[in-house]
Specification:
Mean pLDDT: 92
CATH class: Alpha Beta
Strand content: 15-25%
CATH superfamily: Gamma-glutamyl cyclotransferase-like
Radius of gyration: 15 Å
CATH architecture: Roll
Helix content: 25-40%
Strand order of the largest sheet: 1-2
Largest sheet: 2 strands, antiparallel
Structural class: alpha+beta
Shape: elongated
Distance between the termini: 37 Å
Number of strands: 2
Length: 64
């Protein structure tokens, strides 16, 4: 998304918990603003980072 400063506040007001806007570090080391989750949202969750994404996670769970 690309929003002007005047639109950002109304956009953020509509982001439902446990999502939030925060700083995300990209693979190249740069940082951008993006969607993050509050820590309570991931307590006990399985880390799927090694799979490379949600689609790969779903495919790994699919019956053979």
């Amino acid at each position: 998304y690309e929003l002007g400063v005047s639109e950002f506040g109304s956009f953020v007001a509509e982001v439902p918990a446990p999502l939030a806007i925060g700083t995300v570090t990209l693979a190249d080391g740069s940082s951008v603003k993006g969607f993050v989750a509050e820590p309570r949202a991931v307590t006990g969750a399985e880390d799927i980072t090694h799979l490379g994404g949600w689609r790969a996670f779903i495919n790994a769970k699919a019956p053979a």
